[in-house]
Amino acid sequence: MTTPSITIQTLAPDNVQFVMSGVDLALANSVRRIMQAEIPTVAIDLVEIERNSSVIPDEFLAHRLGLVPLHSEDIDRRLQYTRDCDCEQYCDKCAIVLDLHARCTDDSTMNVTSDMLVSSNASGEFGTPLPGILLAKLRREQEIRLRCIAKKGVAKEHAKFAPVSAVGFEYDPHNSLKHTEYWYEEDAAAEWPLSRNAGWEEPQEYDYNREPEKFYFDIETVGQIPCNEVMRQSITYLQQKLAVVVQELAER
Amino acid sequence: MNAPERYELILVPEGVSKLTVTPDAKLPNCVTIKFEKEDHTLGNLLRAQLLKDSRVLFAAYRVEHPLDHSFILRIQTIDGIEPKDAVSEACRTILIQLDQLKQRFDSEWELKKISGEGMMY
User: Fold this and answer.
1) Mean pLDDT, to the nearest integer, of B31-53?
2) What DSSP assignment string belongs to chain B?
3) Among A175, A216, A232, B71, which residue has the least CB neighbours within 10 Å?
């Protein structure tokens, strides 16, 4: 069993590109799947609308509010799933309450943005929205008054909980393993551009028994969780799944 | 009207167990395990790892229906090892690998952060 290894290529506040080697395709793919679908974040799940005289219908506004990313770093220690909490409905331990009161008082168009969401029970940065996201525009006398209940969830439940916008995943940029066949008109090599990762590997002679070994990841996060945390947590949650399997098997 | 609840992808309902082990009626050392509320993320991973074990004669998984949110894993081992134990061992091996992966990522990250002060960060 070769030891896994990681080499980071580039780093940015919301993006990390790295090469994972010493693992097999199934493991790399499972890590990618967890990253996209099973990392919990906080997102607005219920919206109680008191007043909405804007041109945006209630459900449209509620949908947009649900998609607003909320800071979710360290979520496992800070928030429980509402279904696991022993309160009725929701409480401080399983939900974050955000209020939005916006009223246009002058003649210019008022932009209602995500930074206007005010939390009543957030601690520090956790649960606060990423600023600058446009939710609605108001004309004179139009008003929005609502209360949002944000809960913990995973992207399997609803895509709004996804901490990543896209995960680039590639292996064998030169197709030395012949896992794919390129469609071509005259010359495949001339017609297909080289991948960005092609520089990191040499084309190899075809070997029937060779397995994919180097995987190029390009993780772009939304902003709720920093990108190194996304990677760490995907490994952690995969480990939790396996631990559950081991435990259940021991009981049977 | 027919939309399933969101949590049906994740929550195992009351009275249903996460894993159900059924011995195969005809072959020795052969077992079918049904995993509830799990998908290819676990299935493919376990299958691939089991196939690496030389004591495993047969290992395959199948998602019976995409709307059912479960999969079955069929394992046959040689005499001397229980299929269940082969799965447990496979899980432990993967857990160790993942630990190593996490450590490597952490150290690489720290390195890059310290040395890459001039980078986009």
Assistant:
1) 96
2) --PPPGGGGTPPPTT--SEEEEE-SSSTTEEEEEEET--HHHHHHHHHHHHH-TTEEEEEEE-S-TTT-EEEEEEEE-TTS-HHHHHHHHHHHHHHHHHHHHHHHHHHHHHHHHHTTTS--
3) A175
Q: Which residue has the tokens 């947590």?
A: A233
Q: How far is A127 from chain B (nearest CA, A)?
A: 22
Shortest Cα distance, chain A CAs vs residue B111, angstroms: 9
Residues 126-155 of A with CB under 8 A from B: 153-154
Q: How far from chain centre, in Å, is Cα B103?
A: 21
ipTM of model: 0.93
Dihedral sign of CA atoms A37, A40, A41, A45 in order? positive
Q: How far is CA A40 from CA A69, A79, A81, A146, B25, in A?
A: 12, 10, 9, 25, 41
**Shortest Cα–Cα distance, A238 to chain B (Å):** 8
Q: How much is the pLDDT for A133?
A: 95
Pick left, alpha or beta for residue A44 (phi over 0 → left; psi -120 to 50 → alpha; otherwise beta): beta
CB contact under 8 A, A11 and B119: yes
- The CA distance from A155 to A165, in Å, is 11
Give me the residues of chain A with pLDDT under 50, please: none
What is residue A87's predicted lDDT score, i.e. its pLDDT? 87
Judge: A245–B46 Cβ closer than 8 Å, yes or no.
yes
pLDDT at res. A1:
57
Enter the tokens of residue A92: 């401080």
> What pLDDT is stored for residue B121 in this prediction?
47
Position B119 pLDDT exceeds 60? no
Out of B21, B49, B91, the one facing A252 most closely (by C-beta) is: B21
Is the pLDDT assigned to residue B120 strictly greater than 60? no
Q: For residue A213, what is the DSSP state? A: -
Asked if the model's pLDDT at residue B105 lies above 60, the reply is: yes
Q: Which residue of A has its CA nearest to B6?
A: A157
CB-based contact B104 A25, cutoff 8 Å: no
Greatest CA separation found in chain B?
65
